[in-house]
């Protein structure tokens, strides 16, 4: 892909889309028609040509001195860019020609040649060519500028070359976006501090089905896993921060729209291949990644087909100290059996963990595009992906009983600033190994047709999606548990070292140190099916309102979640097992390179041997589902009928052009949630139906003050539907004789509702360059939080803990982004570029304690400060880029009820990408992720250790070819 940018001295390039858009034309529903609505005031010809380029999405090249002093007439109506230029230059000594790349070149008319322009215009070819990363940045910036709403775009540099191996990792460089990693790989994105369940993810504008976390029970049903889709299949990803009435509702954080490639938009037949080998430092292996894309289009450019495939393997290793608990308590310092300290913060547990994982992923994408003329277009797309994860997790967990009278060896307790930092204490330890294979499958197929005639455009879209997540190999947790006598612990400060844990009387590498406990067995699956149909009508008008849009959408989603747990204890519990039941610890450098003295290898149970030792398995496996299994399973059916109307307008106001859209969307949601309520003796099926409707107005305004300064303002009402797990009507009664308690979901939950406001000021001071400042505010009025209340069941009052609406929260922030291509510098420095952004976010939300009282604290996982820096150089065959992404500390758990709030310390990742083009078709690439070896620390209070994660550095080398 090549975007041509002319130098400011000889030619001024009309900023905006240009070839970038042409090469990566998006969703058909949003694709640029060749005819566009043009609304241009009488003004200087140069400014008019720039405005025309923006409005039509066409590159228009001209020499400023050629048009200096000329003015153009006002122009409005529907026309193509060529016809519009002809009308603007009518009667002037100018001519226009279409170039091979689709750009329009305005030159002196042949009859009156000017000395600065040679005849034929060939020599006036753009003198600067932007390719690669700079081109993707220029194209992305152009889309942001053109949009009426607040949007950020990440574009592929070329076919199969998204600017990061992982979609989430590319999105983290967008202002206001951060990512959540799982074992080093970006899985979820957070937009403006709001978690993955607060965003809607669409694929080519269509709602995607959502895979579920089946490794542990953390789930929401609305968190799209970005690791399931390979980045090579994406042509662009849009982060839509302010909605329009014609876009899917549901994202208070924002909408992420993933766009795949379309064959006619690629303009010519293309074959692209790549092969990469990556080596994660900690895992010490070499993993392949192969991708190929073939796209064909006929000579007329009216029919095309595309197929793409990606296969990759990934080995990960993550060294952690996790499960670090701190709680308020009193201790017995002198061993006399009486608690004698003040209430202090006491460590309760620590769990060193080695996580190893092998992932393999296949992604396939196919597209057929038919565009017989400007009036009709048909697109059929399909995408399928499958991710398999085999994992093996080894842990030992120390559980201190420091608050038990007599537990601490007298004289060993060290208390610093109200925190017990060191002591020798009786300890129980659990050694565990967890293994499983997880499978995530996701597909989406859709068809879209669009007709345009006489100022009307009708578009229809139908899609079908399915996400299946399951455990083809059940989750086995093989556990040993027992007392290990005295352990001396000494917790240091966060960032300095890991805790010291000295087992004074037990050896964790000895097979008989701990007796068996049990094998925990779990099977878990989730099926999410999504069907949608949309119909959109656009009426083009001339005048201030240049388009009216109406549409309707029907969406049906059904989801089942099933979980079954069995504990096998017979033949295991209390038994001591000899060496033949264990394997050698697999690595000899666990937690290397960080201070702290704690056991770094221990006996590793062989799950097969323990499985053989367990007795009575058949009876348990054949038994019917237990009450607990039923309570943990649910089904939700969600039907949404939506409609919208909106107007797009553009008007000159003084010297300022105001454009934008205003609209109203209505969504009616009907939910049926089915599950089991447990009355203390049986789990009984229950089903609830809930209906609600939401009117969602939105307004987006752009004020264009000059040809390079504009402002966006947006206000809208938005909703996010509750987590499906929270909606499940499950209820669990604990018939404890003293306190009757219950926990449950809440099928009565209403959606989160928010008003949100956005403003940006954007200065496009040079081609491909901009300085942008923005602010946002989101006022969430129906925040959902866990609350405990009295609940009457058959005349008995229970203390029920369940999610409730009723809290409120806000998120506010500022975002500053700067990017510049240093085209004005003399060679070779004109290949330099720089990109930076900074986000500052503030938030508060309501939380509840189990006694019913509420408190306010920051929203969890919202970084107060974050920044990204990218420097790059592209010249001739050489490309190099280094990126640093940093975010400040975040609140991870609010704590409460005697438990300490837990925080993630600041974290930064340095990544690089170097490429060398050996022939015009073949490029060698070397990449590194987290090359500075950043590690994640967690802490409680100001600086007390609460967790450590190191996923290491990954280096990659590969070759890409394009024909
Ligand atoms: Ca005492």
Automatic annotation (TrEMBL):
What are the record keywords, sorted?
A: Cell outer membrane, Ion transport, Iron, Iron transport, Membrane, Receptor, Signal, TonB box, Transmembrane, Transmembrane beta strand, Transport
The family database entries (PROSITE patterns) matched by this protein are listed as: TONB_DEPENDENT_REC_3 (PS52016)
Give the membrane topology, semicolon-separated if more than one.
Answer: Multi-pass membrane protein
What GO terms fall under cellular component here?
cell outer membrane
- Compartmental location: Cell outer membrane
Q: For this chain's UniProt record, which GO biological process terms are given?
A: iron ion transport
The record, for SMART domains, names:
STN (SM00965)
Q: Which domain of life is it from?
A: Bacteria
Pfam families xref list: Plug, TonB_dep_Rec_b-barrel
Q: Which residues form a coiled coil?
A: none
Give the signal peptide as a residue range, or say none if absent: 1-31
Domain named Secretin/TonB short N-terminal: which ranges? 58-109
The family annotation for this protein states:
Belongs to the TonB-dependent receptor family.
Q: What is this protein called?
A: TonB-dependent receptor
Q: What is the lineage of its organism?
A: Bacteria, Pseudomonadati, Pseudomonadota, Alphaproteobacteria, Sphingomonadales
């Amino acid at each position: 892909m090549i975007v041509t940018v002319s130098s400011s001295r000889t030619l001024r390039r009309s900023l905006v889309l240009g070839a970038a858009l042409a090469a990566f034309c998006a969703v058909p529903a949003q694709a640029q028609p060749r005819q566009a609505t043009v609304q241009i005031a009488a003004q200087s010809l140069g400014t008019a040509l720039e405005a025309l380029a923006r409005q039509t999405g066409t590159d228009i090249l001209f020499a400023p001195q050629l048009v200096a002093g000329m003015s153009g007439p006002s122009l409005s109506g529907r026309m193509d860019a060529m016809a519009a230029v002809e009308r603007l230059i009518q009667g002037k000594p100018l001519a226009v020609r279409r170039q091979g790349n689709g750009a329009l070149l305005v030159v002196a008319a042949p009859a009156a040649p000017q000395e600065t322009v040679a005849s034929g215009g060939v020599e006036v070819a753009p003198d600067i060519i932007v390719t690669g990363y700079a081109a993707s940045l220029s194209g992305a910036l152009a889309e942001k500028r053109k949009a009426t709403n607040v949007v950020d775009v990440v574009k592929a540099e070329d076919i199969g070359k998204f600017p990061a191996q992982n979609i989430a990792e590319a999105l983290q460089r967008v202002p206001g976006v951060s990512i959540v990693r799982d074992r080093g790989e970006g899985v979820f994105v957070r937009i403006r501090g709001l978690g993955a369940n607060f965003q809607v993810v669409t694929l080519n504008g269509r709602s995607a089905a959502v895979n579920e976390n089946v490794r542990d029970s953390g789930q929401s049903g609305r968190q799209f896993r970005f690791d399931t889709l390979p980045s090579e299949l994406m042509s662009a990803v849009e982060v839509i921060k302010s909605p329009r009435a014609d876009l899917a509702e549901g994202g208070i954080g924002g909408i992420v729209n993933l766009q795949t490639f379309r064959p006619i938009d690629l303009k010519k037949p293309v074959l692209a291949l790549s092969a990469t080998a990556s080596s994660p430092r900690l895992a010490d292996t070499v993993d392949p990644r192969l991708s190929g894309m073939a796209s064909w289009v006929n000579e007329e450019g009216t029919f095309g087909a595309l197929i793409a495939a990606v296969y990759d393997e990934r080995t990960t290793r993550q060294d952690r100290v996790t499960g670090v608990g701190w709680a308020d308590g009193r201790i017995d310092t002198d061993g006399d059996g009486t608690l004698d300290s003040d209430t202090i913060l006491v460590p309760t547990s620590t769990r060193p963990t080695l996580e190893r994982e092998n992932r393999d992923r296949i992604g396939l994408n196919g597209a057929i595009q038919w565009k017989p003329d400007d009036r009709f277009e048909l697109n059929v797309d399909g995408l399928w992906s499958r991710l398999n994860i085999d994992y093996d997790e080894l842990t030992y967990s120390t559980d201190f009983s420091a608050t038990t009278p007599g537990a601490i060896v007298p004289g060993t307790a060290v208390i610093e600033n109200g925190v017990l930092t060191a002591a020798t204490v009786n300890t129980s330890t659990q050694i565990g190994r967890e293994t499983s294979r997880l499978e995530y499958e996701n597909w989406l197929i859709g068809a879209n047709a669009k007709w345009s005639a006489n100022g009307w455009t009708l578009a229809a879209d139908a899609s079908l999606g399915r996400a299946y997540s399951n455990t083809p190999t059940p989750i086995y947790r093989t556990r040993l548990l027992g007392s290990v006598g005295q352990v001396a612990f000494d917790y240091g400060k966060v960032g300095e070292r890991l805790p010291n844990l000295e087992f004074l009387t037990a050896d964790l590498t000895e097979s008989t140190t701990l007796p068996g406990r049990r094998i925990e067995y779990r099977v878990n699956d989730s099926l999410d099916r999504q069907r949608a149909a949309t119909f959109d009508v656009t009426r083009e008008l001339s005048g201030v309102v240049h388009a009216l849009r109406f549409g309707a959408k029907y969406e049906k989603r059904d989801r089942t979640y099933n979980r079954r747990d069995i504990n096998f204890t017979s033949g295991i519990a209390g038994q001591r097992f000899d060496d033949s039941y264990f394997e050698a610890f697999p690595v000899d450098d666990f937690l290397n390179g960080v201070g702290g003295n704690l056991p770094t290898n221990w006996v590793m149970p062989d799950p097969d041997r323990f499985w053989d030792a367990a007795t009575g398995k058949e009876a348990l496996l054949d038994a019917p589902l237990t009450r607990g299994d039923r309570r943990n399973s649910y089904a939700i059916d969600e039907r949404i009928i939506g409609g919208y109307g909106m107007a797009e307008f553009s008007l000159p106001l003084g010297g300022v052009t105001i454009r934008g859209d205003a609209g109203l969307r209505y969504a009616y949601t009907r939910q049926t949630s089915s599950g089991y309520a447990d009355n203390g003796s049986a789990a009984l099926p229950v089903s609830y139906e809930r209906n609600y409707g939401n009117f969602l107005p939105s307004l987006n305004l752009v004020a264009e003050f000059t040809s390079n300064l504009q402002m966006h303002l947006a206000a809208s009402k938005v909703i996010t539907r509750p987590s499906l797990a929270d909606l499940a009507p499950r209820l669990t009664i604990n018939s404890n004789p003293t306190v009757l308690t219950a926990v449950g979901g809440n099928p009565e939950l209403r959606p989160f509702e928010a008003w949100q406001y956005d403003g940006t000021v954007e200065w496009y001071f040079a081609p491909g360059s901009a300085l942008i400042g923005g602010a946002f505010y989101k006022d969430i009025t129906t925040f959902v939080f866990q609350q405990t209340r009295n609940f009457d069941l058959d005349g008995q009052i229970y203390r029920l803990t369940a999610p409730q609406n009723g809290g409120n929260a806000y998120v506010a922030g500022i975002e500053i982004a700067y990017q510049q291509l240093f085209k004005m510098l003399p060679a070779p420095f004109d290949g330099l570029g720089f990109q930076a952004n900074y986000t500052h976010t503030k938030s508060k939300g309501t939380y509840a304690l189990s006694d019913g009282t509420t408190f306010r604290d920051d929203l969890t996982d919202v970084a107060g400060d974050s920044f990204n820096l990218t420097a790059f150089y592209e010249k001739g065959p050489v490309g190099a880029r280094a990126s640093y992404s940093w975010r400040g500390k975040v609140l991870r758990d609010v704590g409460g009820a005697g438990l300490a709030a837990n925080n993630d310390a600041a974290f930064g990742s340095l990544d690089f990408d170097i490429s060398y083009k050996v022939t015009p078709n073949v490029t060698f690439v070397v990449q590194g992720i987290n090359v500075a070896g950043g590690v994640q620390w967690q802490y409680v209070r100001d600086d007390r250790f609460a967790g450590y994660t190191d996923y290491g550095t990954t280096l990659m080398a590969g070759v890409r070819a394009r024909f």
